[in-house]
Task: structure prediction
Amino acid sequence: FQLYTTFIYQSLCLTQQIIKTLMIGLPISLTLIYLLIEVSKLNSKKNALIMLFPTKYLILATLCVLVIILIVMRYSVKKIKNTNIIESIKNENI
Result:
């Protein structure tokens, strides 16, 4: 039981790190996208090239990252629940 609670605590810490990473990475990427759009507007003649801000794709990518991480964390929690701790310690010592 203690191993399970330790793993849940580590998973929560990992989730916090992922959220922090997204909070840092998203503003940087949004700024770079905005700058690229502005530069393309300056370089295009007669505004022939119209670039739109890809909000749908950014939201989709963020949600996909979170879903993949959630699936991996649930899989590992189930794997730990199903393992016998005593047997795994015996196998390590052999």
About this structure: The two ends are 24 Å apart (CA to CA).
